Amino acid sequence: MRVKQTLEKEGCKMVVRGSPYGATRKKYGWGTPFAPPKVCSSSKYPNVHIGTSSLSCVSGKDREMQKLMSQYQRKFITLEHCTTYHGVGDAENWQKWKKLARKKKGFTYTIKANNYLTHKRNLKMDLESEAHVQHFFLERCSILGDTFSVGLVQLPSTFVCTEENTSRLRLFATKVPANVKVAVEFRHRTWFNEETYSILREARWALVSGHSPITGNVPVVDTNAGFLYIRLHGALTMYMGDYGQEGLQPWVRPIQEYCDRDATHEAFVFFNNSESEVAGLASSVVDATHFAELLDKSTAPGSETREKVSRTNEPMVQPPLESEPRAGQPLNTTPESGPINGPPSENTEVNLGAGNASSSGRPTGTPHAPTEEAENADANSVGEPNSERISSTKRKQSDDGSKPTKIQKA
């Protein structure tokens, strides 16, 4: 009988009980002075870059970025750096980030676009917005040199697919320097349609795939960007819960098939479920490390038996549009399809503790109108060097409890 995974509040921490990893969970941690940690990379798929959505997964009282990066780089080769969502920062800080990255060979950042563009202006282009785009993507991101990989544009759940907003997206795509890789995360499900994929394909931008309680499942779609970008936000609720093998395995094959098709293809996978832990070991670290292990252990279908990836206008298997979950319905389910493959429905209990009616994980509420904290929590990365302040309620996590569709060619 499967042990039910729950979350239990202990002081300011959310602790995983009944983890799918069981007693093996600690082997995916940070190692010891006598045993190095498992490195979070795949020998079979070196073009798959796996990391977390902030440095909040690193435990310890010293929150300066230099100290956290020293620990983080023992396991990881990429970081989704989201502090830029709140403030672009001056050139000196970007130089410091580059210097820290170069302490580990091949280390790169993905950089989150500033909220001025995505949440305040909602991609509305005028002279001021265009100047911001050039300042951010051309002047600042270029400082990082080869330590910069992808620009992440995360749009708010209030940004609905309308004719006006579609035009804004199309125009915005013409303003970003053509040599900058971009991945776009939509948080309203009306965007998952062929017109959106066509715009991304024309720009050679990636659709952010993955799962969160806000959007449910987002399909893996090849938009001719040359890379996939997957974010996993929480197995039980936003930013919390261990995925385990059952929750991670469905995402392995689409990545393998994509990378097998072309040696130049890349994939970026970021875990945003750092708000839950066991003995100080965040869910994001455990799941990310196990995901790398699964890439090496799992075998993609052979060329004769592999399902063909659609390169034409084969209809998308669209994720169902969903409204507020029904009473008693876990957040990692959809009304039409039932439990998402991954953590089964019996593994979704959350014990917030007495007197705690809410949390950053938003165990209840509509997925299209998240709290401001939940909407922007993945932006609360570790701050600039010598100025880090991370609250336990603003840590990020990523985890996927959904079964992705096979890769579709948009």
Automatic annotation (TrEMBL):
InterPro entries: DUF72, UPF0759_sf. Residues 296-410 are annotated as: Disordered. Residues 344-363 have a biased composition (Polar residues). It comes from the Eukaryota. This is DUF72 domain-containing protein. It comes from Sphaeroforma arctica JP610.
